[in-house]
Amino acid sequence: MPQRQIVIHRSSRQLELHEGNKVIARYPIAIGKSNTPTPTGTYSVASKYINPGGVFGSRWLGLSIPHYGIHGTSNPASIGTSASKGCIRMHNNHVEALYQQVGVGTPVIIKP
Known about the structure:
Elements: E1 4-9, E2 14-19, E3 22-28, E4 31-32, E5 41-50, E6 59-63, E7 69-71, E8 82-84, E9 88-89, H1 92-101, E10 107-111
Parallel strand pairs: 1-10, 4-8, 7-9
Antiparallel strand pairs: 1-2, 2-3, 5-6, 5-10, 6-7
Organism: Desulfitobacterium metallireducens DSM 15288
Active site: 71, 87
Protein name: L,D-TPase catalytic domain-containing protein
């Protein structure tokens, strides 16, 4: 089975789920504010939590860079903007779908 990976495009505020060379899902996201930017680079999913509480919405996918993750939101109007402290925000129903399709160790590539 082809390996899955998450590719985040900060410039277009899109998250793509790839399986091999094929995009199998695409979601709108919010990224970090200018003073707390989302870091570029190659990371991996390091942890997964259901209902992490607070502003993190219904799911948390922690990245291998400490204090950063892909998560839901209690503020859906922020999706499509630069609003976070560096994390990747998604609509709760989107992060729930993504959560089901990736595991710990899934590569996460964050592009400019």
